[in-house]
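Notes to self, Putative toxin-antitoxin system antitoxin component, TIGR02293 family:
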Amino acid sequence: MLAFGNVADVLGLPVKEVGARSPFGLISLIEDGLPIRALERVAHLLAPGDAQFKYRLIPKATYERRKTADRLSSDEGTRLARVWSLALDVWQSDEEARDFLFRPHAMIEDKRPIDVVILSEFGAEMVIDILGGLKYGSAA
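result:
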């Protein structure tokens, strides 16, 4: 269901990095720690008008430490990149994908998908399941 090249694009990984276009290549890049610009890019794509949104993804003090090292931990930013990539695939528009992510949804107890994704990996999987249902035609 997930196009790894699309996730690499969302993270801002260079097109010439062929490894980022394969599942194991992307895993390797993530495990080595993505550059801080990947998180900044994801935050900007999701909430372009909110300069503070990145601090919802990681606390400000942690962000400053990561910025100094220019490396994220293996899970920072990737969960949202996966969800954003699939939301774009389903909705075919940044605005419609954002509308879906920032509007309460009945299948997750009227919580906003973005909040559920930020909360945990399990929450991200719930939102990915909803998006998969929308993409492939099951109830969502």
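- The mean pLDDT is 86.
- The chain is about 65% helix and 0% strand.
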